[in-house]
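Field: COMPLEX_INPUT
Field: COMPONENT_COUNT = three
Field: RESIDUE_TOTAL = 952
Field: MODE = joint
Values follow.
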Amino acid sequence: MRGSRRFAWTLAAPSLIGLVLVSVVPIVFMARTAFQKFSPNPRVPPRWAGLDNFWALLDDPQFLGAISVTGILLVVCLTLQLSIGFALAWALYHIKRGRAVVISLLLIPTAIAPLIAGIVWWMLFNTRFGAVNAVLGGALGIEPIQWTITMPYALIAIIVATVWQTVPFVAVILLGGLTTIPEEVLDASKVDGASRWRELRYIVLPLLKPFFLVSSLFMVIDLLRLYELPQFLTTGGPGNETVVTGMYLFKLGFTFFDLGRASMMSLLYVIVLTCIGLLFVRLMRQSTP
Amino acid sequence: MTSISDVRRPTGVRARPTSFLFRLKTCWPWLILLPFLVFALFPVYWIILTAFRPRSDIFQSPVDLLPTNLTLDNIRYVWFGSEANAPVVNFLGTSLIIGVVATVFALLLGVTCAYAVGRFRIGGSFLPAFILSFRYVPPIALIVPFWMLFRALGLLDTYTGLILIYGLFSIPLIFWLLLGYVEAAPRDLEEAAYVDGASHWKAMIHIALPVLAPGIAIAAVFTFIGIWNEFVLAYQLAGNKVATITVYLPRLRTAIAELYGEIAAASLLAVLPGIFFAAIMQRFLVRGLAFGGLK
Amino acid sequence: MSSIEFRNIRKSFGAVEALGGIDLEIPDGAFCVFLGPSGCGKTTLMRVLAGLEMQTSGDVVVAGAVVNEATPSERGVGMVFQSYALYPHMNVRENLRFPLKMSDQTKDVSDRRIDEVARILQVEHLLDRRPSQLSGGQKQRVAIGRTIALDRSVFLFDEPLSNLDADLRVEMRLELQRLHKRLKSTMVYVTHDQIEAMALADMIVIMRGGVIEQVGTPDALYSTPDNLFVATFLGSPKMNVLKATVVEASGGSARFRLSSGDEITVRRDVRTRAGQEVSLCIRPEDLSVAPDDIALPLDVEMTEFLGPNGYAYGTSGADKLTIQLVRRNGRFDLPQGKVHASTDAIHIFGEDGTRLVDRVHAPKGEVA
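Field: COMPLEX_OUTPUT
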């Protein structure tokens, strides 16, 4: 119909302008301040500093520490999320009655604010008054563990809380993927003599590849921008050993007020996230036939 | 030439175990689901219980599955406020206002944008990918420049500032969710409306949007919950005059005594909308996630 | 020996009984067709045989052994699905290899077997393609190929031709017959299409509502249907059904009043008595314009001339009646008010649908 394109662009324009405003403008701004040196005194104007901020970050042990902590979390959590998530999805796939109820219940942790999850698990992991130590002590007779102030327990606590909050989401995506496999294909594999395990390995998992990729993408991005949960669970403790990149960014910008280095770190964040996004898009294109 | 007799026959019928083992084999999914359900729901159960237990009980026996000694003290503490904090209702209200307004704002922009792109295919294949790519940049990566910009523009600690930024950041998610629905809805109805003389606007408002209602509902729920639960922006870009429920909660932790019960009570109030929507929306969630999952 | 036996098989899905007490024997090497309308239980029965569904009670016996809790491959059963069910992420070669891999054949044997199967089904040129790149007929062949890759005792086909075009269907029907001759195995075939059933079957099992209505060769079922349902299910155009009331029945004859008011006499021993409501059935091709034992009134409404033969459609009293038209001296004989049939051609069924009169010249009904 006449005027369709004009109508469509009119509709889309506000969103596009808004998105550009809210993303591109800050990024450009940040790209400039990343190369500046700010003094704590707001009256002193910032100086041009070239790549100084970048090298400063690389020399900064806290920065490197944050990266390694985040890296460990990434690998461990992603593995747990995908494997437990798949186990749950596979189990859900095989039940008919009660599936809806179970999914609703499983999704409750995902609806809770990460901040609240952090605080609640902080209470649960408390050395003296926490439910975790109470259960471990009562059921297994284990001595109370000082979760939030010793390594590696602090890291384990973060992993437990993160997995608690994210696995159901992965399970739901993978369950959706399982429902796209035609039942007759699974029947055919049984008729062809495949045992349960072989059916999983040769038929189900290969066909789920795109869904594993999608969930991984979501999980990786979420893990990279982890902030509230570790902040309120361990506050980076003991010392700085559970500071993740998000937390360090905050510290740089609003505790140390080193806006220059914080901007540089933000810039790196954006670059890394964009690359990961592109990588996944390419992987997705390859795996769907 | 291979004859079929070269191919080993698959094993014939073996003696089979009794039906009992057979029955056990059919209930294995529950052996996987139940432990995780307990793991998933125990903290929630704990919050609910702790919110209603007196302080002394909480610290004497952290895990009491069926406590009999219940109290409303914790709820009263947060509800009516204390010297340290205003009543929780204030913060709930702030979150509600910001959440609703930002969601409506985001829906207005996002739904129309999804409709424009999905129906009229503007911008080729580049535009949808472009819009979706904004999802990869989370607020936390941009918090530093945002803070500086807000400071310069005088938007710090204002409703307007938060609503603007929440609204705009929610657009990609809404676009992503709704695109599938728009493409799946048949054009026939709108084309019939055009033939009847309707303008683009009328056709969209009276025909297309009602059809898209379920998708809009899901998008609204997801967006609202996301804003309700958000902390980083609410804390850094506001937090004094404009304080949401997420900003309020950590304050209960810096008090002198361990306010477990009170924290639990406040948390309970803060998680109610999320749980409520998760419970009733699960049907759409499974379908909707698989729907948009592959884009 | 790969005969099949169902002993009192029942299957319920919750409150719904899909199969109610099925007893059936299928001899080794037979091509057996389960035929019936949708929902009759034929696919359920096949899946119970395959081992994809577990029956609620009763035994399934394959080659003399009770296989109730055996997996499909342990039963020696192969199956071709309605949607072909090819593995979408594997190419044709890997699809054909899969059953061989699952029973741990060596690579050499597998490779040679794949080539042989591909040759038999003429899909050699497709071995490197993916299922999404195949046409319906090609997918059909690959599905059959995958089934015969292993030496199985029984082959099952679940409405395999229903997704194909008409000409492809005829071609594949012949392929299946050739396959049966070549492999000489027992084959069980599910369809709702009676023409397919008549063309392919050594024995047909007609089902309705979860029970078996009748078992027999196509010819036996066609000429000697046991009940009204079977009589009207087979045959196209359908068997004519005339409602009538018994005036009297004794000795070797019975008299009926038709809905048109006319009365006819059937000189046979009919198991009924005066006052009963019956259904008199005659096939359109058993009616003739030329005079014969029994005369029926016919008001012709429409005629169709279809080349070698034709049909005249009309009413006889309150019932519909169709007669097949034949040429005499190059021209069609049209009925003038009355059509005729021989006594032997009439089927009579009671109110409950059961057969009331035996055929004089019953064709061979036993399965070889």
